[in-house]
Amino acid sequence: MSAPDPAEWAQIAPHPGDHDLPAGRHELHRTRLLTAIAQRPRTRRRAFVPLRPALAAAALVVVAAGGGLAVRSGDAPPAALPSPEASRPTARQAPPGTAAKNRGYGTVRQLTDAAELVVRGEVTSVTDGRAVYRVAEVLYRAPDASVPTEISVAAELFGTTGRPTVLYLGLADPGARLYRPLGGEFGIFDLAGETATSRSPGMSVTGLRTEDAAGAGRAFVTTVAELRQLARERR
User: Fold this and answer.
1) Distance between CA atoms of 190 and 164, rounded to whole angstroms?
2) Is the pTM here over 0.70, yes or no?
3) 154 and 168 in contact (C-beta within 8 Å)?
4) Residues 16-61: pLDDT tens digits?
5) Residues 179/184/186/188 CA torsion (nearest 10 deg)
6) Cβ–Cβ under 8 Å, residues 104 and 216
7) pLDDT at 62
8) Burial environment of residue 82 by CB neighbours within 10 A (0 to 12, 13 to 18, 19 or more)
9) What is the pLDDT of residues 126-176, one digit of tens each?
10) What is the DSSP string of 129-176?
11) pLDDT value at position 175?
């Protein structure tokens, strides 16, 4: 069968005519299309957000373990966390020597245990910042400490000469054999007969063997006999 002649097309398929829509029809179709789109139900896609480390950590199981904590995830064995006490920084110890003794003291026992020399006597003279201290009694001395009748003591803490005292001393200059009261005025007790009173209320111990909070800010009063007894207990 041969193809139709082009002239026959007008009879087989009539001309569709003008494709343009009537005036205003375009705007009508556009309005209907936008309305249909607006009324169409919307579905949101769930965005994938990677799990942050903080959220992952929140999924761990935290259980008590002794004094600290243990963190467990899945089948992994618990990892112990340090307790608050273990997390605190360790107190740094003072270096050995005289510098370590330049601190406050709470009891006469602490002074006695730290002293290299505990003596009773009085200052006879002061020259160039050094006091000549006449020793009347040695309550305690370290094994390597000499027992002279006079010693040199740093004089910035002393008042008038001839005032009887008991001194708790540390060796400030081994070469010159120069001593210094422990903790400044903590190591100085003024004597009135057999009564010993700490030199400074603000730099004073509060007890013989144990501290007494009620005695803070006040001069500590004891007896020479008690000071001797504590010195004997260290020997």
Assistant:
1) 6
2) no
3) no
4) 555 565 666 667 777 877 787 777 666 555 544 454 554 444 444 4
5) 50
6) no
7) 39
8) exposed
9) 888 889 999 999 999 998 877 779 999 987 666 668 899 999 999 888 888
10) TEEEEEEEEEEEE-TT----SEEEEE-TT--STT-EEEEEEEEEETTT
11) 81
